Inverse folding.
């Protein structure tokens, strides 16, 4: 049986609860693509991308929490390996959704800056986890 530290167990439990939020995003997309909400092409694309990134990164983030438990990383390195992808799962979807908000928006808003920030955190987290796993 896999033994999780208390922080990993609590983090995983909280993250699993966020799936309900991702699920409500799917309901929102049904409204958008069902024509019940008037949106621009940019908004449709960004809302779809935000929802997809949230779902995929939450699942990958849960895996990273588990895999980080198998490393000898400590301190910030362990925290980044375990939660970097989860932070990206917040930052990147927020960048997509927030930068597309506003009636008739056809160009991304300022929140689009969250996309490269999230991508950087994502890369840092997976590289740190890979290094931790490879070094044992």
């Amino acid at each position: 049986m896999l033994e999780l530290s208390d922080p990993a167990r609590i983090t995983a439990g909280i993250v699993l609860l966020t799936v309900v939020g991702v699920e409500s995003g799917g309901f929102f997309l049904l409204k958008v693509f069902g024509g019940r909400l008037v949106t621009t092409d940019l908004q449709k694309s960004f809302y779809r991308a935000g929802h997809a990134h949230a779902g995929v990164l939450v699942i990958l983030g849960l895996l990273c929490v588990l895999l980080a438990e198998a490393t000898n990383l400590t301190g910030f390195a362990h925290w980044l390996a375990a939660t970097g992808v989860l932070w990206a799962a917040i930052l990147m979807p927020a960048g997509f959704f927030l930068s597309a908000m506003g009636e008739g928006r056809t160009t991304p808003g300022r929140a689009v800056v969250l996309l490269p920030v999230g991508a950087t955190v994502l890369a840092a987290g997976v590289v740190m986890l890979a290094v931790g796993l490879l070094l044992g």
Observations:
- DSSP finds four helices and no strands in the chain.
